Amino acid sequence: MKYLKFFICQFILGTALFAFSGQEEWSTVATYDNSIPENIKVNEKYKGGHPEVLDYVFVRGRVANLRDLPSTKGKVIGKYGYDTKLKALKKVLYYGNYWFFVEDSKGKTGYISANLVRKRVFRFQKALDKINELEKFVVDQKGMGRELASTSSYVPNPNNQNFKRAKDKYGTSLDQSSIGRSVVNNEEIYIPDRSILSVVQRGKTTSRVKVANIPEELIISNSTMTKNPVIQEDFSKVVAIDVSNQNMMVFEKNRSKEWEVISYVYSKTGIESQLGFETPKGFFTAPMVKYVMPYNSETGDKQGYARYAMRFSGGGYLHGTPINYDEEINKEFFMKQKEKTLGTFTGTRKCIRTTEEHAKFLFDWVMKTPNKKQNEQRLTENVMFIIF
């Protein structure tokens, strides 16, 4: 009996040591290299600095503990506040629970519960695949002799009144969208402003069209189509927005006709709210830019402004950090606070937010010779927005 008790004690002790002595019972689910894929060509033209962390998690609650083991029994070796970004090195499964092995800005490593953070990644290959998809659409449709155009359904609504919040089966909001009807079953499909399409068959008042990101062909009113700007087969500028990961990748075609990444940064997109909508997904062509984009409050009062804005769909702009007029007295502080949230949660009214410095880089990239005497500038070449 004495030997049996000794054996049982040794077995229990050995099991405990086994569980926490190494990674024998930890299953690695994923590893992250925090690098751009080798097949993606990079030619960094934005000199303001790019994120060093491409695979990361951010704290989604008030505080999260960093532990020396992937278990709540592990020793707490660090604490991080809301929105803190941590480099993700790997994801592990331990007794049914997921943990991330991470590194903070000072080089400290440890484990953090997946329940306390949210994962983000730059999907360069996905963005390039989407560019190729748009290129194929343009080439194929032109090859069939079809004219290319975009929708034009934007009606300014500065006082944020009478929003049309109905959604179609794809989750697209009616507000600032054209109404299309499926040629298959006459179902209403909403097409966001500035969506790229081809005209399959033109009629006197309506036409049959193929929208680049919508599976079925639709019938839409001719009054909601425009050829300004003209869709060029050899477009060379693309801003790719990954809504799922809250970041943007900017591509330009070089002289060898190869797509290069010239910039990649954290960003923020729209959320359904009293004053706004989710950022629409699809393929869009930008019609214009502004030096300054003012915005109003829910009561229609002038609230603030954002600089270097490029309109991509309806009232949705890509712009720099917005500043309320009452924040100007301490502008730098508020800009830093807002820029810290880029790359985390959604939170705009529909717009795509970047830093003011990066927004200026994009403004200068698309406007080589702007008219500095006027706020609004018309684009002279295609700048495509791919939002996925």
Describe this structure in words.
The relative contact order is 0.13. A seven-stranded antiparallel β-sheet has the order 12-11-15-14-13-10-16. It is globular and about 75 Å long. The model is unreliable at about 1-20 (pLDDT under 50). A hairpin with an 8-residue loop joins β4 (about 65) and β5. The protein is an alpha+beta fold and about 400 residues long. The N and C termini lie far apart (about 65 Å). The protein is built from four helices and 27 strands.
Mean pLDDT: 93
Number of H/I helices: 4
Uncertain residue ranges: 1-22
Using DSSP, what is the number of strands?
A: 27
Measured between the Cα atoms of the first and last residue, the distance is: 67 Å
Q: What is the approximate shape?
A: globular
Relative helix content: 10-25%
Structural class: alpha+beta
Oligomer: single chain
Q: How much of the sequence is in beta strands? A: 35-45%
Largest sheet, if any?
7 strands, antiparallel
Walk across the major sheet and give the strand order. Answer: 12-11-15-14-13-10-16
Radius of gyration: 25 Å
Characteristic key phrases:
15% helix, 4 helices, 388 residues, alpha+beta, six-stranded antiparallel β-sheet, globular
Task: Write the topology of this structure.
Blueprint: H1 2-21, E1 27-31, E2 41-42, E3 55-59, E4 63-67, E5 76-81, E6 85-94, E7 97-103, E8 109-113, E9 117-121, H2 124-143, E10 148-151, E11 177-182, E12 188-192, E13 196-202, E14 206-211, E15 218-221, E16 225-226, E17 237-242, E18 247-253, E19 259-266, E20 282-285, E21 288-296, E22 302-313, E23 316-319, E24 323-324, H3 331-339, E25 352-353, H4 356-366, E26 376-378, E27 384-387
Parallel strand pairs: 2-19, 17-27, 23-25
Antiparallel strand pairs: 1-6, 3-6, 3-9, 4-5, 6-7, 7-8, 10-13, 10-16, 11-12, 11-15, 13-14, 14-15, 17-18, 18-19, 20-27, 21-22, 21-26, 22-23, 22-24
